[in-house]
Amino acid sequence: xxxxxxxxxxxxxxxxxxxxxxxxxxxxxxxxxxxxxxxxxxxxxxxxxxxxxxxxxxxxxxxxxxxxxxxxxxxxxxxxxxxxxxxxxxxxxxxxxxxxxxxxxxxxxxxxxxxxxxxxxxxxxxxxxxxxxxxxxxxxxxxxxxxxxxxxxxxxxxxxxxxxxxxxxxxxxxxxxxxxxxxxxxxxxxxxxxxxxxxxxxxxxxxxxxxxxxxxxxxxxxxxxxxxxxxxxxxxxxxxxxxxxxxxxxxxxxxxxxxxxxxxxxxx
Length: 268
Known about the structure:
Layout: H1 2-14, H2 17-44, H3 48-70, E1 79-80, H4 82-89, H5 93-105, E2 109-112, E3 116-119, H6 124-145, H7 151-170, H8 173-189, H9 194-213, H10 221-236, H11 240-267
Antiparallel strand pairs: 1-3, 2-3
């Protein structure tokens, strides 16, 4: 406050009466606003620590519900009740509602008017559409990434292959999902196209929930890794055409496996 008063006195010596009047009026309003804000803040007990705590809590609730969906604890079509989730997680309804809004935006859940919120169910037609979009966008990412990818990014992608094989042997489906997702995320980021990364990430989040209901990774793990390694090899040789074509075939095969798995489940 002392610094502000010193600056004000300096200005007052340099300007005429009417300008002084304007500055004094502004200063009074500024002080009234500042003091009033401090009183409100003290009265309500609102501080930065409380805001950060709330944001962190909402993030944890979101991650918890999302993991339940991916881990098959909440199957497609399950109704999600805010009060029940809040009780299970030991939180209030506010962070649960925020988490559900985020999950709806990302395609994990769907809100049906006058009925409630449900875990998203994808029809075969919707899965086909999502994969077609993903194929086009990730193929573009591979083409853009090939001339730009660095040795560090290549090493990171190779590491996902080693990790994937380890989790397949353990039959750890959640870790397999995350590792496979990491491989594709690294490839997409290597394109250095921010908007492309943003658009693709939405579809990949939806696909994570599809993968859990699809064929188990350990039934096709070796072949998946062969495809990943071939893609990495094309990228390391900066071969845009080959990287793009291998990526397309990899995603097409994933689509075929998912849809055939759904057909078998229906027959069974």
